[in-house]
Design brief:
Elements (H helix, E strand, L loop, with lengths): L6 H18 L10 H10 L3 H11 L3 E11 L3 H8 L16 H10 L3 E10 L16
Antiparallel strand pairs: 1-2
């Protein structure tokens, strides 16, 4: 991966790879809980480079859908298997301010409990977003 990419874009690519794995394994769409990574996603949507980015990182178009909730983030273990521990950018808001308490809790427990307001879907935006499992289930 290009090391000159901003961390938000690197993590968006990783999130797309996690998304594909979750869908292939029959799991619900992963929850987008990072304001910083989600802001990058919004910047890229509807740009000429978005389709190519999706193809490179997911092998298919990944659409963005509103899907809010609060609970344990279901895909952390899959991310860790693929890439290691979540970096600080996952705990940053859209302005890049890191929630140090949330990050410390994750570092201590390996669990992320957060709010989210969107999730990915495969293909066009008319796809149904599978609902995340209840908190505490992976």
């Amino acid at each position: 991966m290009n090391s000159t990419l901003p961390p938000e874009r690197v993590e968006l690519g990783r999130f797309f790879k996690v998304t594909v794995r979750r869908f292939q394994d029959g799991h619900a769409a992963p929850e987008m809980f990072s304001g910083a990574v989600d802001a990058e996603w919004h910047r890229m949507l509807d740009t000429p480079e978005y389709d190519a980015f999706c193809a490179e990182h997911a092998g298919t178009l990944i659409s963005h859908a509103e899907n809010s909730g609060l609970g344990e983030i279901s895909w952390v273990t899959v991310y860790e298997e693929m890439f290691g521990q979540l970096p600080a950018i996952w705990f940053a808001d859209a302005d890049g301010q890191v929630d140090a308490d949330a990050m410390a809790c994750y570092r201590e427990t390996g669990v992320v409990v957060a709010e989210w307001d969107c999730s990915p879907t495969g293909g066009d935006s008319d796809d149904v977003v599978p609902k995340p499992r209840a908190a505490g289930t992976r």
